Amino acid sequence: MDTGTRVLLCAVAIAALLMAALGNFSPELLPDSGGYLDPPGWPGFLSWPRTPFYGWFVQALGGEGAFPAIPALQFLALSLAAIALPSAARRFGMSHDAAIALALPIPFGNAALLFTNDVHPDILAVALALGGIAFVLRICATQRTRVAAASALVGCAGLAYLLKPAFLAFCGVLPLLALLLLRSRGVSLRQAIVRAAVLGLLVSSPFLAYAGLRHAVVGQFHVVSFGGIASSGLAGSMLRPETVDRLPPEHRDLARHVLGERDRLASEGKMLPIPLNSRNERSFLSTALGYFDVLARNYDNVVFAIVMPFVQPGRDWTEIDRQLQSFARAVIVAEPAHYAAWVAGATARFVGMATVLNLSFGLAAVSLVLVFLASTMMGRLPVASPVPDPKDASRDWAPLLLVVGAWTLANYLPAVLVTFPARRYVDIAGLLLASPLVLGILRVVARSRWPGNPA
Q1: What is the CA radius of gyration of the chain?
Q2: How many angstroms from the chain centroid is the CA of residue 145?
């Protein structure tokens, strides 16, 4: 067993003790857990608003009687992913320090510490998506794609987004990551594009198969009937009276209903009203850019207290979702400036929460500052290596930053473009953000004149 694996096993053990001390190995049901746990039979699950795969997983374990074991199993899956990722990074050519830095924040991330005990598919999907990135690294480390690695990539990535459809963004992000990784190794642009395109087809194949099945049976080419429902909160928040006449006639009744109910719930104190700006006007633009948390607090009210009661009675989920997708697109087309403000405000919330409220990122940032200050105050300034490695940046920093960027981007896109950056989405997105800081700490320590560490 190499040093990196031992370090990660120790980190996993410490994280497990911390979770046990916090009581996080006791299963917890979330408000939406039921939608995952009890899918209907064939073909009803194809039009269900949640995918059935997590429910089938829990049923295979024994159903409700298996709930006590689920947190430990999910923590084990995440730990295995954290151990597999640096092994793949080493295969790609990254140093031991960089490989360890890439995975070390995972067991201490907010997602691991806060959500592992949830009877919910997120953590399993996270572990599988990390496994998908590991296999992308392994595939890009060789001149030819091996069948075993390709099959494992398809399985990991496919199961990840079938469990958590928000991870469908990986269908585009993983090929882009492969393209950039191959170019960082000096592969020609043409060859890199071809290999990335093949990888993209592999990653997308489970989506194409399952979405094709749903299209044939229920008439919708998607993995789940929920995208329109989620985006209806964004559309309903952006509406203003002037918007109604710019919408297609089939959406105007819903728009008027949303406007009326928003005002009613705000007057009853059940929703937050749009705050007054400096001109004493209620402006969505200024709220989205400066007070986005108001929109975030109201999001579920718009979806479940306003939109769904209007469209739901007696209708199929697929039909509802199709209508709401069309409604959301129509509102965005009618209010492009409001949508741009939404994206800007949601991005600000995303960045702030992903850094300021990210435990592993915060600890790594403070540790990096303290290590650097300690080396400076003790007269042991970081110095260059005796033999500088001109390939250091491309060997370690470039692939590490590409992997961190790919993970963050794949989670950022759905959280900002089609819904709002809720805490769960952001904590998952920030899982690897501390990795560059951890590598910085290791490099400062390695290149400082500490006793017994001649530089």
Answers
A1: 24
A2: 27
pLDDT single digits (tens) 167-192 = 999 999 999 999 999 999 999 999 99
> Distance (Å, rounded) from C-alpha 109 to C-alpha 397?
21
Q: What is the distance, to the nearest Å, from the Cα of residue 63 to the centroid of all Cα atoms in its chain? A: 27
Q: How far is CA 240 from the centre of its chain?
A: 31
**Helices 317-334/336-356 angle, 10° precision:** 110
Q: Report CA dihedral (370, 371, 373, 376) to the nearest 10 degrees.
A: 170
Q: Taking a C-beta distance cutoff of 8 angstroms, is the pair 161, 170 a contact?
A: yes
Judge if the upstream peptide bond of residue 43 is cis by omega within 30 degrees of 0: yes
C-alpha dist (Å) from residue 237 to 255, 269, 328:
10, 17, 10
User: Quick count: other Cβ atoms within 10 Å of Cβ 182?
Assistant: 22
pLDDT band at 445 (very low <50, low <70, confident <90, very high): confident
For residue 234, which phi and psi values (nearest 5 degrees)? -65, -50
pLDDT at 383 over 70: no
Residue 364 near residue 105, CB atoms below 8 Å: yes
pLDDT tens digit string along 47-58?
999 999 999 999
Whether the CB-CB separation of 197 and 204 falls below 8 Å is answered with no
Q: Check: CB of residue 223 under 8 Å from CB of residue 211.
A: yes
Stated length of the chain = 455
Q: 10 Å Cβ neighbour count for 22?
A: 12
**Residue 398 and residue 181: Cα distance in Å, rounded?**
8
Q: Which residues pair with 450 in a beta bridge?
A: 453
What gap in Å lies between CA 174 and CA 205, rounded to an integer? 13
Model confidence pLDDT, tens digit, residues 211-251: 999 999 999 999 999 999 999 999 999 999 999 999 999 99
Q: Whose CA is closest to 153, among 122, 131, 177, 175? A: 131
Residues 6+ apart with CB under 8 A from 290: 345
**pLDDT tens for residues 58-75?**
999 999 999 999 999 999
361's CB contacts (< 8 A; 6+ apart) are: 105, 354, 355, 430, 433, 434, 437
Q: Is the pLDDT of residue 210 over 90?
A: yes
* Residues ≥6 apart with Cβ < 8 Å to 278: none
CA distance 22 to 110: 13
Q: Mind listing the pLDDT tens digit for each residue in 1-16?
A: 677 788 899 999 999 9
